[in-house]
Amino acid sequence: MSLHNSLPQEWPDYLHDDAEVQPALTVPPAGRYVLDFASLQPLGFEQFCWWLLRKHRRLVGCKRLGGPGLAQGGIDLFAFDDVAPDQLVVFECKSGEGFSASSLTKAMEKFDEGSWKSSTREFYLVLAKYEIEPPLAERWRQVKRDLREKGIHGALWTAHTLTAMVQEHPDVLSKFFPTYPIEHFGNKWMQRVGFHEAFNKAFFDPREHVRAQAFALAQQGELEMSAPADAPLNEPSTDASLPILEPESSKEFKRIGYNWSYRGPWFSISAILPGPQFNHPSAAIDFNIANLTGLTLALGGRWLHDKMLFATGSPITHEHRGFVVGPVPGLEGLVIDLSSARLRLPDDVVEELASVADALTDAVQDAYLELESRWGSAGFPFVNWSGNRVVLGAIDRRGWHEIIAFARAHDVSAGDQPWCMFDAAQDVLKPYVIQTERHSGRFDLGYHGIFYASADVEIDLAEGHLAIMWQPPDAHSNEELSERGWWPVEFAHRWLDDELLPEVRRWVLQREFPSWIGRLARRNALSRFQGILEACIDLRDLRRPSLLDEDRLVVPTRGAVERMQSFFSAAHNRPHAFVSAPVVETLFAALAMLTRLQYGHVRYVVGSLSLAGAPKTHAELEMAILARVREHKVVPSTSGIDYALRAFLELLPADDTLVPRAMDDVLRAALVPLARVHDAAQLARRHEPPTQR
């Protein structure tokens, strides 16, 4: 008998697509952003769970617990595990506010009685509760430990978890909470045919047949995803001119949680901001212009990064705005490229689109910085590897194997020493504490991180190296992390580099050279092996930190200039960074001041800046640079800034302390605008979405 046939399959009449649902009819209090599941009747809550979980899992069975209307009644929902199809995922859904610690004990007794317990891989307790009382929380911790001993992963979902999960399924949200404003609790542009799910499957699902079916679904629904890649420009009017548009005065920007929207006279944009749950931004734009009325275009995260965002204040040109194609000879307006559709729009509309893109850029940057603050990951690159991951650094493949060997040898069950703090697993590092006294109360009980290593990430790695990745604790958590609980990224990096890796090196050395006599007899071999250990078991820094903190340079002047010069000299297959002429003129004025220190080769600086008149002394060099500024002949291009920064490094003493304090303050102030451009680009690079394959 197959596992599918052995399941209860007691699907009641109210758990079907065409069954009438029992929605919540209450009106949410002002300022509340968690759904009131307590307002659902017990059957309504069970229906909600059934509808929501089907979006995430393939449900294959159901068993009733208790009866309708009972405060502690509920249902068990069964699903196949995505990774191991012969295993089950069990969801126990309880709607009653009266669910207590004793109720949980009884529920687990019923679970233990079920024949499917031996096939269960994951167990989720789903409660309608807004808050969990301390006795219930403590009892759940015990249950979770018991489940773990049986090889079952346990997790508790509350109203907070369910509210976050249903955000990307507004069809379920509006079905069960029709009086709740969709702009607050969901994303209006995703309502039609479950757009977010269809969009992600259409473009990101690795299975070709799933992508094809999802794309067809989106095309058949009310939402038109986008025109084909080779779509022609929208047809001009008969007199070859665009309609005259009179903008209305009303423009509305709104951000609620991770939902951001703009509503204007010519178009509206709805976007999902990046956060713990959504790795990258995504958006949809609706037009209200002449023959474009009703057209909705989807804008994915990678396209937004490459073409529309992070160009704040830039001119409306193809060089600086990736979505701008340019004018059409003999026709009015500008041609733009929105992901996979080309349109010709009036200049005013394109300018407004650029302005809204800058506002969305601010929101996306704020969201990325909020996430970095919450996870303690400032400066660390993010990657998409089976979900959102943060890269702690790179390590030689052999070094990672030794770390895993060390963790297996120091499982929590291997002894009571401080380093016996791992839940040993194949190729996964999982620090785990079962006795706080082993660590002098430094850590709380439980897991403190999960770390993976892989070379299959979109980040530059040396040959034979792996990226060590930190896994977020919970995609739905909005709380800042604590070193006593799940380790923030910065703390995890320090722990790896300062504590674990030195201990692993000592352990490997002791394993290979166990006796002091052998070490004396093989001193040359010992020295060579120590060198290999230092090279292999070493964490390479891959951080891309910011230069500014509260608009002040936080690194030495030379270091800041070196990093900015490297940034501006790099080739980018994307729109060029925009820097205004006054900013570059200020940089040249700082260069002129720097010549007074009499450092560097004049000929090198003359060549870098392409100065006329062939100045031979530092005094002549100063006059030539100032003449270029006064005549406004400074070209604000990325290549021009690159060579100006090369000249800056040539004129700057190797020791920053040789620059007078007053002069250094002026130099650093001149560098701040360039540092802003650098930091914005580095923030975007740290969170860059993966290339669509």
What characteristics describe this protein?
693 residues, alpha+beta, 5-stranded mixed beta sheet, 5-stranded antiparallel beta sheet, 15% strand, flat
What is the helix tally?
Answer: 21
Q: How would you sum up the global shape? A: flat
Q: List segments where confidence is low: pLDDT < 50 over at least 5 consecutive residues.
A: 68-72, 187-207, 217-241
Structural class assignment:
alpha+beta
For the secondary structure, the number of strands is: 21
- How many structural domains are formed by the residues? 4
Q: Tell me the radius of gyration.
A: 30 Å
Task: Characterize the biggest β-sheet.
Answer: 5 strands, mixed
Q: What's the end-to-end separation, in Å?
A: 40 Å
- Strands side by side in the biggest sheet: 1-2-3-4-5
Overall mean pLDDT: 83
Note the quaternary state here.
single chain
